[in-house]
């Protein structure tokens, strides 16, 4: 199945990334002498290409390659909405959120919430962000990577995970954000190249687009080519659920999650931050074609007899366990040597996701938790605290794996968790930057009550799967929870009116035009021009695949 050459390529790639990460993180300053700004924010020197690639690499992990292919096999292009809708929230990040973050000079998003609201909001967001990073960005990625490596190489899942965790943690904990961003830029290229290879292999095996659509027509499965399903669709992902529910998840993930936004905070200036975010928006067009579409080709190949899926059949049943479809495609569609490249691409996604999450956890633990109690802590001590926090996060994430492995679809699992975490955070950020009357107490109670409500709903869904709540699609549940949080915060803002400080009085937009007054760069690189171009591109794509 996997020969020595493939193993050598995969192992060699891992070692190369570790060496590059250690070099990038220590070439300017030794770990002992590094300032906290250099360690956590790369000295604020990042330019737009590196920011865009790093955003994409932190977002895309081994989980996405494996699970999006699975979703392509099961439901077609439908889950590609999570990739294409991200472009719209990245436009929001570039136009409306970046100026706040860059101009205020914050190191973390909880720091921003304290300046806009109060200390309690900062503490809660720091706590929730660390928990989310451990579960969403690290543990789920570990799980997907472990399943793939166990299937391909026969290595025990936990053994492979521990090895990858140790190697990724080594250069991330030592090198800080610079090491993370440099390696993520390389890993983005490798990951995209690997995904393109498997797409070409599936396309070639199928014979192109027309033979695939012919198979879909024969099996009454043409709806698999549609991104926008009618209201009440059995998938729970109707066009209404996508356009109402995704923004709640997406604004938290792309605009208010420390793990993602930290790449923007390390930007050289506002223009680089804005264009970097938009560059990532254009890259996010690719996953539908190179991550989801191969799964759809695999379905057509399976139906036409070109792919043997007997290894996926569950014992005593005709039902397929499609979690392993990506691994099956690698072993059946690729020649020796290219298998090693694809494994390297999978490892790229896994390592970059974990590295980015570890760095954000280090930043949150140091700036938002430890420094609160010891404000005079020197930079060297802050870096040390961040490294210890990263190490502990790795151990906790490994311990969560048996629980998360119960999901049938890892991609749906991760979005199910996000749907119950995101609503109160999205609410307080949106009202905070757009509504002058959003008060500190209202935000504080909205975060507390909204998070508790999300946790209760999530628990009820899992403990009582036949309940009315459990039958609500998670995307619509995210919207309902968000609407409840908005009503709660607006009501509480009138009960506890805001009294702005000199600082908080500058941290909201007075009009829609205000954040767009910055001229930006000239030519095609202007952030306004790029935003319009991205909007038009997404509109055309959704029209084609409606």
UniProtKB/TrEMBL annotation:
On whether Ribonucleoprotein is a keyword of this UniProt record, the answer is no
The protein's matches in CDD domains, at most eight in alphabetical order, are given as: SLC5sbd_SGLT1-like
Q: Which GO terms describe its molecular function?
A: D-glucose:sodium symporter activity
* One of the record's GO cellular component terms: plasma membrane
Q: Which domain of life is it from?
A: Bacteria
Topology with regard to the membrane? Multi-pass membrane protein
InterPro entries in the cross-refs: Na/Glc_symporter_sf, Na/solute_symporter
Q: Where in the cell is it found?
A: Membrane
Membrane-crossing residue ranges in chain numbering: 6-25, 46-69, 84-103, 124-149, 155-174, 186-204, 236-255, 276-302, 338-364, 385-405, 417-435, 442-460, 472-496, 527-545
Read off the Pfam families from this record. SSF
Keyword terms of this UniProt record: Membrane, Transmembrane, Transmembrane helix
Give the Gene3D superfamilies listed for this entry: Sodium/glucose cotransporter
Q: Which family does it belong to?
A: Belongs to the sodium:solute symporter (SSF) (TC 2.A.21) family.
Q: What is this protein called?
A: Sodium:solute symporter
Question: Which source organism?
Answer: Chitinophaga lutea
């Amino acid at each position: 199945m996997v020969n020595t050459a493939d193993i050598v390529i995969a192992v060699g790639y891992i070692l190369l990334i570790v060496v590059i990460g250690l070099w990038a993180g220590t070439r300017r300053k030794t770990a002992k002498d590094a300032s906290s700004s250099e360690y956590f924010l790369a000295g604020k020197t990042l330019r737009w290409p590196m920011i865009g690639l790093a955003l994409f690499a932190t977002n895309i992990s081994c989980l996405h390659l494996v699970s999006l292919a699975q979703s392509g096999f099961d439901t077609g292009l439908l889950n590609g909405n999570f990739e294409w809708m991200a472009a719209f929230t990245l436009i929001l990040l570039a136009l409306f959120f970046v100026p706040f973050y860059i101009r205020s000079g914050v190191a973390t998003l909880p720091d921003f919430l304290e300046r806009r609201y109060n200390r309690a909001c900062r503490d809660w967001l720091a706590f929730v962000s660390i928990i989310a990073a451990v579960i969403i960005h690290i543990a789920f990625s570990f799980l997907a990577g472990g399943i793939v490596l166990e299937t391909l190489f026969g290595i025990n899942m936990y053994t492979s995970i521990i090895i990858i965790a140790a190697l990724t943690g080594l250069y991330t904990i030592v090198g800080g954000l610079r090491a993370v961003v440099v390696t993520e830029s390389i890993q983005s290229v490798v990951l995209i190249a690997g995904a393109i290879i498997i797409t070409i292999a599936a396309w070639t095996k199928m014979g192109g687009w027309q033979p695939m659509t012919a198979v879909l027509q024969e099996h009454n499965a043409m709806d698999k080519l549609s991104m926008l399903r009618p209201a009440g669709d059995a998938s729970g992902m109707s066009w209404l659920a996508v356009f109402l529910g995704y923004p709640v998840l997406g604004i938290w993930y792309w605009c208010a999650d420390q793990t993602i936004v930290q790449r923007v905070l390390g930007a050289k200036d506002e223009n680089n931050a804005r264009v970097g975010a938009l560059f990532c928006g254009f890259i996010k067009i690719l996953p539908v074609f190179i991550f989801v579409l191969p799964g759809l080709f695999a379905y057509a190949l399976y139906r036409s007899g070109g792919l043997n899926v007997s290894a996926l059949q569950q014992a005593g049943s005709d039902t397929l366990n499609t979690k392993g479809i990506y691994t099956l495609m690698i072993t059946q569609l690729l020649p020796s040597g290219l298998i090693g490249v694809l494994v390297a691409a999978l490892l790229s996604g896994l390592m970059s996701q974990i590295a980015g999450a570890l760095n954000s956890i280090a930043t949150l633990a140091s700036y938002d938790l430890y420094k609160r109690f010891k404000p005079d802590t020197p930079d060297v001590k802050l870096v040390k605290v961040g490294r210890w926090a990263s190490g502990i996060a790795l151990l906790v994430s490994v311990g969560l794996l048996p629980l998360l492995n119960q999901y049938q679809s890892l991609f749906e699992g991760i979005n199910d968790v996000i749907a119950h975490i995101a609503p109160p955070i999205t609410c307080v950020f949106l009202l905070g930057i757009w509504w002058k009357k959003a008060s500190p107490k209202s935000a504080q109670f909205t975060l507390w009550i909204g998070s508790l409500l999300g946790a209760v709903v999530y628990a009820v869904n899992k403990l009582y799967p036949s309940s009315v709540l459990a039958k609500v699609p998670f995307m619509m549940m995210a919207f309902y929870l968000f609407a409840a949080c908005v009503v709660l915060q607006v009501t509480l803002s009138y009960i506890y009116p805001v009294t702005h400080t000199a600082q908080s009085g500058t941290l909201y937009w007075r009009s829609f035009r205000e954040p767009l007054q910055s001229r930006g760069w000239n030519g095609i690189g202007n952030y306004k021009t790029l935003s319009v171009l991205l909007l038009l591109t997404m509109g055309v794509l959704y029209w084609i695949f409606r």
